[in-house]
From TrEMBL:
Keywords recorded for this protein, A-Z: RNA-binding
One term of GO molecular function: RNA binding
Family to which the UniProt record says this protein belongs: In the N-terminal section; belongs to the PINc/VapC protein family.
InterPro entries the record matches: AAA+_ATPase, KH_sf_prok-type, Nucleic_acid_metab_PIN/TRAM, P-loop_NTPase, PIN-like_dom_sf, PIN_dom, T2SS/T4SS_dom
Residue ranges constituting the AAA+ ATPase domain according to the UniProt record: 259-394
The organism's place on the tree of life at top rank: Archaea
Protein name, as recorded: ATPase
């Protein structure tokens, strides 16, 4: 008996098992060189299936040495053109042709290969992929009822985030450090479990990084050179809530059922945003709406009626195009972070789909400001009409977003009327903010005097002065207004001469343009170094100077923040959340989407700041 397996069944390890079971006893097993080439390529790319297939070839060689089978390598390796057309089935066709030429039984675990081979008249044995019951994983033993995430790294004691939502503690699970061999074994068990069980799958597989979904766990496995050591991060939802568990539930239900909405669910990391989004998704589904999700990676814990989509071909824009054909009533987008995400969110919302996006923000208004510059200002209320801010697992603030043509608050001249985005407290109906264009600048003016003592006109004046001085100075700029026609500007020592200019000519030009007297001083002379708006330095964030190398962008921060989770901002706009390394720095690999946004901000001379998340 001659059998010729394809790549799929070699990876499964089913050929050697059939030999041991007696089905292929004394058979001549013909291994196509095309299969060897494909496995070698996968192994070189760091893909586990390649290593699994090579292990199976070693096992078959041992069985041949023991006299249980005859083993031959046949055919030729695919050329460059055939490799490039592998997705179109060129290598599969090469293997099928070889089975016909050798008059061998063609063995495969690929249903498409099986159907095509039968249509071609081959003798085919289809072995369906095995699905096994997988018990408790070793990584699950680090969890207890209060654990949200477990963090394992070679050479470091196991760590976990534990506690109530919004009050998490990052603490050691045990004092003994873990070896690389221990973590490799845990990682191998996770990956095998995801492949063998119907309860798991591999969400992402790239050299150096795998993301696995297994039951309720999302598990990231990082390896060198992507990480400096093998690391496993396993996360699970701590609680599953119902919309009735939240304040304002009745009003929010009525609002979402009234018509399809554009909603941003915002909050700081670990505040419970995704938990609330899951509750909203379940409520909408139970209310008779068609609900889908867009997630990368898939993280929301929702029922089987809600289909969870990821990035199609690595692009959420392609996913959106597909969903527009499906026409869901509501789509949950977790998370909306980069410019592309906001554009996709806006496109789907303007196409008539109800959209609910999850956004990192330290204040409710910050979530809405992320749209500024990414969506045309007048379209924002059509894209987002509701902002829900989550804090410590509770609904803290809900904003209603509308647009009016009016004179902005704080201004008096009728000819200053313009389109104004009005943000009102949903519960009380009290206006909280206005967003509008003034002197070609988009300004956000708080109407609650308890939050900021400046009036609308003062705030605009301060922003205009900051903008002018920042176009000259390289370092941090702070502005203090001292009346309607005078201000003090505080800059770094190195910037004094460039801001003032030769004979005071440059600052005089600024004064003439703005119609205000400006006194330039150093930060050492500032009696309120936390900022003229009354904020502390920590609230404003630490100004950092990026160091760009050929491979990384490095942000060095105060060593006291080592190990803390922080937000990186550019020009006051959120970019990403990161953890400060042991060396007191944050490293971003160049070429990544985050690095591209950071480099664009640097090119625009925007101030880069790091603030506690």
């Amino acid at each position: 008996m001659k059998v010729l397996p394809d790549t799929s069944v070699v990876i499964d390890g089913r050929v050697s098992r059939r030999v041991r079971d007696g089905d292929f006893a004394d058979a001549t097993v013909l291994i196509p060189e095309a299969v060897v080439g494909e496995l070698e390529h996968q192994a070189n790319e760091g893909i586990d299936s390649g290593w699994s297939g090579l292990e199976e070839l070693k096992t078959l060689a041992e069985l041949a040495d023991a006299g249980e089978i005859e083993l031959e390598y046949v055919g030729r390796r695919p050329d460059a053109i055939e490799k490039g057309q592998a997705a179109e089935g060129e290598i599969d066709a090469l293997i099928r042709d070889l089975a016909a030429e050798q008059e061998a039984t063609f063995v495969t675990s690929d249903i498409v290969q099986s159907e095509v081979a039968e249509a071609k008249g081959l003798d085919v044995e289809y072995i369906s992929p095995e699905v096994e019951d997988v018990g408790t994983l070793d990584v699950e033993e680090f969890f207890d009822e209060t654990t949200m995430s477990v963090h394992l790294k070679a050479g470091v004691a196991p760590m976990a985030k534990r506690g109530d939502v919004g009050e998490m503690r990052f603490e050691r699970v045990r004092e003994e450090v873990q070896t690389e061999a221990e973590i490799e074994e845990i990682a191998r068990e996770i990956e095998n479990g995801a492949k063998q069980s119907s309860e798991g799958f591999i969400e992402l597989s790239e050299p150096g990084m795998k993301i696995v979904q297994f039951r309720d766990y999302r598990i990231a496995i990082a390896r060198p050179p992507f990480a400096d050591a093998i690391e496993i991060t396993a996360v699970r939802p701590l609680v599953k809530t119902d919309l009735d568990d939240y304040d304002s539930a009745d009003e929010l239900r009525d609002r979402m059922l009234e018509r399809q909405r554009g909603i941003l669910i915002s909050g700081s990391p670990g505040a419970g945003k995704s938990t609330f989004a899951q509750a909203v998704a379940e409520f909408l589904n139970d209310s008779g709406y068609s609900v889908k999700t867009m997630e990368k990676p898939r993280d929301l814990q929702v029922g089987p009626e809600i289909t969870q989509y990821t990035a199609l071909g690595g692009s959420m824009a392609k996913t959106a195009d597909s969903l527009l054909m499906v026409r869901p009533d509501y789509t949950i987008y977790d998370e909306v972070r980069k410019t592309d995400d906001f554009e996709v969110f806006a496109d789907m919302r303007l196409a008539g789909v109800g959209m609910i996006g999850v956004v990192h923000a330290t204040r409710a208004i910050d979530a809405l400001q992320r749209l500024v510059g990414r969506v045309e200002l007048g379209m924002i209320p059509q894209v987002v009409d509701t902002v829900v801010y989550i804090e410590a697992g509770e609904v803290h603030t809900v904003y209603d977003v509308t647009t009016e043509v009016k004179v902005p608050a704080g201004l008096t001249e009728e000819d200053l009327a313009r389109p104004v985005i009005v943000i009102e407290d949903f519960e009380t109906g009290t206006p909280a903010y206005e967003i509008y264009t003034f002197n070609r600048q988009v300004v956000t003016v708080p109407l609650d005097e308890t939050e900021e003592s400046e009036g609308g006109v003062d705030r605009i004046a301060r922003q205009e002065i900051e903008r002018e001085i920042r176009s000259i100075a390289r370092g941090y700029v702070d502005v203090e207004l001292q009346g309607s026609n005078k201000a003090v500007v505080y800059v770094d020592d190195d910037d004094i001469s460039s801001v003032i200019g030769k004979g005071g000519g440059r600052i005089t030009d600024v004064e003439n343009r703005l119609g205000i007297d400006i006194d330039v001083r150093t930060h050492d002379e500032n009696p309120n170094p936390g900022g003229s708006d009354g904020s502390t330095g920590t609230e404003r964030g630490q100004v950092v100077t990026p160091d760009i190398t050929s491979r990384h962008i490095r942000l060095t921060v105060d060593g006291a923040q080592t190990g803390q989770t922080v937000e990186v901002q550019a020009g006051g706009e959120y970019l990403f959340t990161a953890t400060v390394g042991r060396g007191g720095d944050i490293q971003v690999s160049r070429g990544s989407a985050i690095a591209e946004e950071l480099e664009r901000a640097i090119d625009r001379s925007q101030q880069i700041t790091v603030a506690g998340a």
